[in-house]
Design goal:
Elements (H helix, E strand, L loop, with lengths): L3 H7 L3 E6 L5 E5 L4 E5 L5 E5 L8 E3 L5 E5 L6 E5 L6 E6 L8 E7 L5 E6 L3 E5 L5 E5 L2
Antiparallel strand pairs: 1-2, 2-3, 3-4, 5-6, 6-7, 7-8, 9-10, 10-11, 11-12
């Protein structure tokens, strides 16, 4: 178990805490571009290196980790399977979607994903069928 002083020298600029079904806490360390895991027992480990500047995190109903990634470079929203390590892209820039820096993420009661995109102040929804809709643009 890492003590508080060791943690302070090991991680910085933390974002997006969320907990899995067992109570382990996952969070992003944006400067080092990694997703960390703090176990219930207090062990700190790296869940994913090269996280593409991941920021906001949340678990879906199947406890797959959804992440807002990218800060002006390769912005996307992904979903990681904790058991297999497979990372699936749910949203990325294309002809009909122009994101800058996906930031925060949440879910509604029927499993739709909502995320913000900075600096423009946009909010998007990803429906369960994968359709992406911009629901607010400032």
């Amino acid at each position: 178990m890492i003590d508080q002083a060791e943690i302070a020298t090991f991680v910085s600029f933390l974002e997006g805490p969320t907990a899995d079904a067992d109570g382990n806490v996952y969070f992003t360390e944006t400067r080092s571009q990694r997703i960390m895991r703090l176990s219930v027992g207090g062990d700190l480990s790296v869940f994913r290196e090269n996280s593409n500047a991941a920021n906001g995190l949340i678990f879906d109903s199947e406890f797959r980790l959804i992440a807002c990634e990218g800060n002006n470079a390769n912005p996307k929203v992904t979903r990681s399977n904790l058991k297999t390590g497979r990372v699936e892209v749910l949203a990325q820039n294309g002809p009909n979607l122009k994101m800058t820096a996906p930031n925060d993420v949440t879910l509604d009661a029927v499993g739709r994903i909502y995320f913000t995109d900075l600096p423009g102040g946009s909010i998007y929804r990803i429906d369960r069928n994968g359709a992406i809709t911009q629901i607010l643009n400032r």
